[in-house]
Each structure stands twice: as structure tokens, then as C-alpha cells.
Amino acid sequence: MTPDQLMDYTQVMERFDPVVGLEVHVELNTVSKMFCSCSTAFGAPPNTQTCPVCLGLPGSLPVVNAKAVESAIRIGLALNCSIATWCRFARKNYFYPDMTKDFQISQYDEPLCFDGEVEVDVNGRPYTIPIERAHMEEDAGKSVHMGGTTGRIQDAAYSLLDYNRAGVPLIEIVTKPVYGTGAEAPEVARAYVSFLRDMIRALGVSDVRMEQGSLRCDANISLMPKGSHTLGTRTETKNLNSLRSIEKALRYEICRQGAVLAAGGTVKQETRHWREDGEYTSPGRSKEQAEDYRYFPEPDLVPIAPGRDWVEQLRATIPEVPAVRLARLRETWGFSQMEMRDAVAAEAVDLIESTVAAGCAPQAARKWWMTELLRRANADNLGLDQLPITGIQVAQVQGLIDQGALSDKLARQVMDAVLAGEGSPQDIVAARGLALVSDSAALHDVVAAVIADNPDVATKIRDGKVQAVGALIGAVMSKMSGKADAAKVREMLLSMLSQ
What we know:
It is a single chain. It contains 16 helices and 14 strands. It is α+β, with helices and mostly antiparallel strands. It has 3 domains: 312 residues, no CATH class; 86 residues, no CATH class; 58 residues, Orthogonal Bundle (Arc Repressor Mutant, subunit A). A hairpin with a 4-residue loop joins strand 12 and strand 13. The longest helix has 20 residues.
């Protein structure tokens, strides 16, 4: 559907109420796969991390990864879910080239975690997101589409299959239909997935890197006529891998479905694909109902019955809700909403927190991570947490500034050396001789020489034009290669020129 065929978003909202449903897949960061001992490391050569179990070869038997069960329970608890006292796996049968067995080991009517809810905030308004279930399953392999310009199946000449990902532990978090979001439906969906990403990262059970596929979202949307209580036909936009894409894809689908319904047409229940290049969705396959998957209990795995004592022990490990933590830190640090928003966007909050914990003032910590270090990370196409510097080292550099041992300019040189692996800030200052000179005896001769070399400026200062002292400070700093204490130099200049 071309843009001019879409219904205006405001007009859609006047006639229909959107209902959202989200299915979020989270790859766990366990060392081994869900049912075998193969590595889960990202980026290995294709088809090098496989075995008879994850390839589904005849005679192979799966064994449940205990760490994956623990991670799943912790996710469920963080979502305020009930934890089943007994549950089991099922086979979900369907054919797709990246499915090695033609079925996926998942959970169906007996999930591990169920009936939860979380709250997200959009434009100052709270929305409750009801959670239907969070269940365990194995990931499929990966289709690599070759010969095209976009890397997508639509213009590929052929496809290759990489089964390294087959069998990686997944948690699928499924919401119930989310009503009452109105025009903010796409923003609510984005806020919810952002909440999940932050919460799961805080739990430490996944790196939730959407660009690498360790967190993926399938977004369902349907439209109900105003005043109706009957759900419309939904579409499911698959494998959205950025927060921006989630919001844009839902907004597009709302306008597309609105145009279809307004013209007297019927929305087809189907999966759809988000096209980043043109920012539109395209049809996939007709969406199956649950019975089409022919679910039945997995005969090769015993049920799971987590003990209540174990569940309560895991509950004690659940960290503070990310939104509550951010509000607390913003108030404690004295950051503005914009400063905190920027720190969150740059994924710098944890780094700032570790720097403050090491004794650095919050604004100084923010300054280093959000200016100098962020610039260097961007230049090297790295995340801030990938820079070879710690919050403790940043705090040590700032401590040297606070002690008067370094200027900001010299501190940047120390940062360069730390990033280059030359050692601790203190060792670098000693090895490079970067410490500021503030001793009066060491500065006296240089200051006197600068006054003698600039009689006109000295006369202006003696006549009351104190602002002219900046030129003399600059001259002293130049003679001392920037290693003079500027405040001490100013004090000495004014004292000597007043005599």
C-alpha cells in the first residue's frame, strides 16, 4: 500500500480503537544451548556450534539446561508472574528451512511463568501491560539471504542456513491484548519493550542486543470500531529488532488496516515483514491458529517442578525495577530529565553509577562519560561499555583534577593513555610528568619573565583592567607546556602586579 493510500492516523483514531499484543523473544546468555552442551557464543563461523541434539538427528536425546530454567524463573518473577509448581515441554510442529527437526521444543498450555503485569509510562501517563505467559523454548537456525541488496528474502537470489543458533535458549514473553492505549499505542509498545530490555539487562540473563537478535519483538495489532467490544482481525509484524521499528511498524499497520476497513474491506490474518528501506510492512504467510501446530507433550523430556524454596531464593535476587532505579538515581545525582534521558540513551547509567561509587561527583562523572568518552566510543564504533576504561579509573582521573594535580587538558591526555593501556592514571601522570606545577618557587621565575615580556599588558592590569590577566596566564601556560596551575598563576600575577 502506497503512502497516499494509507488512512490518516488521526482519522483512524477517530473511528477505531487499536488493540496491541506483543511477543518478545529473549535469547538467554547461558554458556550452552537449551538441550545440549553446544556453545551459544555469538559470531562463530556458520554451522560450527552444532551436534546431533540441536540438529535433531535420529536417536539424539535432549537434556534441559538448569541455568536456563533459573533465568526463566527470574524473568517471570520480575514480571510479577506466578511460577508453575509443575510444567512440561511440548512439540510445536511446523516446517521452515531453519527448523532442523520440523518441530520446535517449546511450552504450550503449561508454561513456567504466567499471569503477570508491569507498568510503563508514556508522556506522563501510566499504562498497565498484562502478561499472559513467559515460557521456555529453543531458538531456530538462521536463514542468510544472499545475492540481493538488502539482505532480506524479498530480493535474494538464494539463501543459506546457519544452524549455530538452533537450540539457543529462548524465553518468549507474551502479553494479553492491551486495551485503552488509544493514539499512544505505538509509543506504549515501544515503552514496554524498552522496559523489558532494561529489566532483563539488570537481571543479567541476556545481553538483549536487538541488533544481534538476542531480543526480538513480534508486534500484533488489530482495530475495533469505536464503541465495539469485539476484537478485530490482527496482523503480526515479525522480528522487529529496534525500538524505532516497533513504533513505526505499528503506526504503519494502524494506518493500513484503517484504510482497508474504511473502504469496506477485510483485514487478512497474516504475518507481515517490516521493510526498513521504505518504512512499510509487506505480507508474509497466513497466520496459523494454535491447532495448526499440532502441539503435543515432548516425550523425551521429564516435567519441571521448581521447589517453592528455590523460587523464593531466586525472588531475593530480583533487582530494583529499572524505572524506579532511574528515578532514584536522577534525584540523588541532581540530573535534569534531559541529562538522565541522554545517559539512558547512551547506555551510560551503569558506568556513571560505578564512577560515582568510586568517589566522583555525579556531574563530573556525567561530563566524562557523556562528552569525552562518548565521542571516542562513537569514533571507534564501540559501545561505551566496550571502552578499555573503568568507572574507577575515570574517578581517579577526576580525583587528580580535584586535588589540583591535573588540569582538564592534562586529564584528557591521561584518559588517552589509560585507553591505550599504559596503566593507572597515577602511574601515567608519574611516567609522563604530567602533574601540574603549583609550587610558588617553581612558578615565580616564569611569571616574572612573562610580566617582563609583556609590559603593555602589565600596565593595563595595574590600571585596573584585570580581565587582561588572561593573556598573561596563557603565556605562562605556554611556557610551561600547560603544566602550570592556572589558578595559582593568576593569583601570583595579580599579587606581583599590585606591588
